[in-house]
Write a structure and sequence with these properties.
Layout: H1 2-25, E1 40-52, E2 68-84, E3 87-102, E4 109-126, E5 138-139, H2 145-153, E6 158-173, E7 176-181
Parallel strand pairs: 1-5
Antiparallel strand pairs: 1-2, 2-3, 3-4, 4-6, 6-7
């Protein structure tokens, strides 16, 4: 009987050790440790934000980022997720409205208003962790989403190392849904 109890105790210890090993291999901490910083979010708002297209026409306005066809009133949500040492994935979602003065598909004169929703993703390297307190609630409309990301959110220490994918939808431009994807 003593032998059986000893066997059961060893078996229980083995099960516990195997369970702890499985938890560690799945990424769960089994002892108190300093946790890596988690996802950080910050929301800001921008008015009269220039919206660009790749089409030049008589009513678009030249800018460093391409021909401008509208101004946007946007709520921008930055979601920063650590991906490694000093590296982050930043997803910027935008929701708001646009006021068009040109058709983004032709560059011709067009006046219209509607909603805009979309996202933009970047991979970022920075020696500074993201600091939501550095991003004001209201942004200057002339600041681009990447300027906010690089100079404010990461205190000027960020470098874009990848990503750049985006998907924006506009309802309605000349009565149809207009989408920019890249």
């Amino acid at each position: 009987m003593n032998r059986s109890l000893s066997f059961k105790t060893r078996a229980k210890r083995s099960v516990v050790a195997a369970s702890l090993g499985a938890l560690v291999s799945l990424g769960f901490a089994v002892a108190p440790a300093l946790a890596a910083p988690g996802t950080v979010t910050v929301v800001t708002h921008t008015m009269n934000h220039p919206d660009t297209t790749n089409v030049t026409g008589p009513c678009t306005i030249a800018s460093d980022n391409g021909p401008t066809w509208a101004t946007d009133n946007l709520s921008l949500n930055y979601r920063v997720t650590p991906t490694g040492a000093d590296t982050y994935s930043v997803l910027i979602t935008a929701h708001g409205s646009f006021s068009a003065f040109a058709d983004p598909t032709t560059g011709a004169c067009y006046t219209g208003h509607g909603s805009v929703d979309g996202w933009l993703q970047y991979d970022v390297s920075s020696t500074s962790a993201p600091d939501p307190a550095s991003v004001p609630a209201q942004e200057d409309g002339s600041l681009g989403q990447t300027t906010i990301l690089l100079s404010q959110l990461f205190d000027g220490h960020a470098t874009i190392t990848g990503g750049g994918s985006y998907d924006y939808s506009y309802n309605l431009v000349n009565g149809v849904r207009y989408t920019q994807v890249g």
